[in-house]
Design goal:
436 residues, alpha/beta, TIM Barrel, 2 domains, 5-stranded parallel β-sheet, 16 helices, 15 strands
């Protein structure tokens, strides 16, 4: 496959590389030479306003991929094949699919002035996907299916790559235990608060756990081991290891022997990553310290991350992660609502709009997080199952990548989260396991 354009830019190379990997086994060649394009024997895409060759698949550019810098874009969505599209143009597709996909994947709109949510994050209500009602589908993947059909119509013998559905379970270990390994001061403080609040059941449970007569309500680790083994899954665990408790960083301290053993155990059998604390977002020096803590405990380099509270800003957070050797990033989603923040169910490399270059940081977007469903959306376990299945069905349709986030406290024995463990088990055993 060869693509003709009048200007070969970093933006164009980035998005063509992404589309190429999703559609073909071999990369799409880009040329700015009309004669090379005309003489090429294989399938062709004309990404220009020139009539370079009549039988080529034609997509008319709207200019975003030939520009530099970030400027407000005039975007008006319209319906195409029952879904939204924008950047309208003439051609075999009625819109500039490459510019539209680039806009969504790079999170272009997050570089523009915007209101932040109560936690200082990019609010999902600012996003085009939320305003236009496509946050809940992997729109870019559906567009690529449309492009595949357009190419196949013009070149019936064209050989495509058909991706395979993949599921990656991930877990954020914000607080590894409810009662254990907290140290005497935090334990005493918890007891006093429970006494003052008249929470007698909590006091009884705490005593039973600390005396070894009962499992900690947040301890779901052995159960998860069995579930992963049964379903043949390879999960990722992200550990919060802030050196001090402050604000929403309420983790078990990394100096605790219990946490060190937990990290060592999971590091030996699973893929693990850093869960950078809220504090590290305000003090970048803490990010290095937390990574070093985790590397010592796990006895391995740490190259994966997901931000605590999904707190990140572009491009600053990703620049800092790259500086610290992070290669895979799992924060691409919202901490206020579930859905597809980058409108895709595929991993992709982060494009740095500030420096106009593709970076080596690979992004793994998630579509579902238990905390969003429970705290932000107020769903019951039954409603959560319905939402999970909605994302699962859409991702299966495009044979995409499904990444979910669960927390150990949702999957343990805490009465507050009764029913959520059952939802997860049914989902894995009856849907993902049998479909994989």
């Amino acid at each position: 496959m060869i693509l003709y354009c009048t200007h070969n830019t970093p933006r164009l190379r980035y998005i063509i590389d992404f589309c190429s990997k999703e559609l073909f086994d071999t990369p799409i060649t880009i040329t700015t030479d009309p004669e090379t394009f005309r003489s090429s024997p294989g399938p062709k895409i004309n990404y220009s306003d020139e009539q370079a060759i009549s039988e080529a698949v034609t997509i008319r550019p709207t200019g975003l991929l030939f520009a530099t810098g970030v400027e407000p874009q005039q975007i008006t969505c319209f319906e195409y094949n029952g879904r939204k599209a924008f950047f309208p143009s003439a051609g075999d597709l009625p819109f500039d699919i490459f510019s539209a996909a680039f806009y969504l994947l790079t999170r272009y709109e997050e570089y523009l002035p915007h209101e932040k949510d109560v936690h200082g994050r990019y609010a999902h209500t600012n996003s085009l996907a939320w305003r236009e009602g496509f946050l809940d589908i992997p729109l870019v993947n559906y567009w690529l299916q449309d492009l595949r059909l357009a190419i196949a119509h013009k070149y019936p013998g064209c050989v495509f790559r058909y991706p395979v559905f993949k599921f990656i379970p991930t877990y954020d270990i914000d607080m590894a235990w409810s009662f254990l390994h907290k140290g005497w001061r935090r334990t005493a403080g918890g007891v006093i608060k429970a006494l003052l609040g008249g929470r007698w059941r909590e006091l009884k449970d705490r005593a039973a756990v600390l005396s070894g007569r009962k499992a900690d309500p947040f301890d779901a680790y052995e159960w998860l081991d069995s579930l992963h083994l049964y379903c043949r899954l390879k999960p990722y665990y992200f550990f919060l290891v802030a050196a001090r408790n402050k604000g929403v960083d309420r983790n078990i301290l990394p100096s605790a022997g219990g946490l060190q053993q937990l990290v060592q155990y999971h590091g030996a059998g699973y893929r693990i990553g850093i869960h950078p604390s809220w504090q590290s977002g305000d003090d970048p020096r803490l990010l290095r310290e937390e990574i070093e803590w985790l590397e010592v405990m796990a006895a391995q380099p740490i190259t994966r991350s997901r931000q605590h509270y999904v707190r990140f800003t572009l491009p600053g957070t990703f620049h800092r992660l790259l500086e610290q050797g992070i290669e895979q990033e799992f924060s691409m989603g919202y901490g206020t609502i579930n859905g597809f923040r980058a409108s895709t169910a595929a991993s992709f490399y982060w494009y740095d709009l500030e420096n106009e270059e593709r970076t080596p940081l690979r992004i793994f977007p998630f579509c579902f997080m238990d905390a969003n469903t429970y705290y932000e959306q107020g769903y019951t376990p039954a409603q959560a199952m319905h939402e999970l299945m909605h994302y699962y069905r859409h991702i299966r349709k495009v044979n995409g990548l499904m990444v979910t986030i669960w927390h150990n406290n949702f999957l343990g024995a805490d009465p507050q989260f009764a029913g959520w463990r059952d939802v997860y088990e049914v989902f894995l055993k009856e849907e993902v396991f049998w479909a994989s």
